[in-house]
Amino acid sequence: MTRNPDRPLSPHLTIWKWGPGMLVSILHRVTGGALAVAGLGIFTWWLWAIAAGADEYQSFVECILWEVAGIPLILLVLVGLTWAFWQHMLSGIRHLVMDSGAGFELRINKLFAVLTIAGSLFLTALTWALLMGVWS
Amino acid sequence: MSAGESSTPLGQVRGHGSAQHGGEHWMRERLTSAALLLLGLWFVLSLLLLPRMDRLTLIEWLQAPSGAVPMALLIVIGFIHSVDGLKTVVDDYVHDEGSRLLFHGVLTFVGIGAGSVALFSLARIAFGAAA
Question: What residue in A sits closest to B38 (Cα-Cα)?
Fold first, then answer.
């Protein structure tokens, strides 16, 4: 579609007043992009390594645990993707509710938005606490 | 009323009715999201319930139908949902129609390509990768 450059564009991230609703909205898009690119990338690499053989899987694990100055960077990315997974799932549920026409009252909407953030942080901590139990 | 060459783009499409599948992409995003809600929870809970995370345990998990079938669904639906989502982002930020179609094409190619690698890897595991 051709755009008439004389027409104004809708306000963007730099113009909106920040609030829980718009924060969760943009987080939904950012986390979705991260999951689609980095998440599915590592997921596919993981499946390929399991299928390829013991040596390849060992290299995969070593890459995941790769440290720069004592900091396991890829592992931190995995923690970030875990948070993205939960945030996208919770804000996705919020979007499905809103698709039905519900949850637009200002207070309820704001509360749902805040709850998705609190929930995703809690579930990320819980997931990794349990994962450490599986690994050790 | 005839839609001659002097008519506007809006005038040319008026009166022809809906193409009937305008909401298809929108609805597919919602349906796949509902499926991924279940499959995503299954994936995380399955990993957490594994006794250990070594390769042989993972192979055992993915060789059983209860592991292989949901994993196949997670791969297929996960890639469809991801490509749909990324295309929506492209639609919002790429205003040139040629570039937009190019991005859509690239996303479709990369999505189906990477999804096939994931699916083939799962098949190799499920049908007996060398342990």
Answer: A89
pTM of the model: 0.87
Measured between CA atoms, the residue of chain A closest to residue B100 is A1
Q: Is A119 on the interface with B (CB under 8 A)?
A: no
CA triple A115-A118-A123, angle to 5 deg: 115
**Alpha-helical regions (H) of B50-96:** 55-63, 65-93
What are A69's two structure tokens?
């100055």
Q: Taking a C-beta distance cutoff of 8 angstroms, is the pair B90, B99 a contact? A: no
pLDDT of B7 > 90? The answer is no
**Mean pLDDT, residues B71-85:** 98
Mutation target to probe the B interface, by most B beta carbons within 10 A, among A50, A81, A130 is A50
Angle at B89 between CA B86 and CA B94, to 5 degrees: 120
The end-to-end CA distance of chain B, in Å, is 72
Best mutation target, B32, B41, B73, B82, to test chain A (most A CBs within 10 A): B82
Query: b/e string for A11-26 if b means 16 or more Cβ within 10 A?
Result: eeeeeeeeebbebbbe
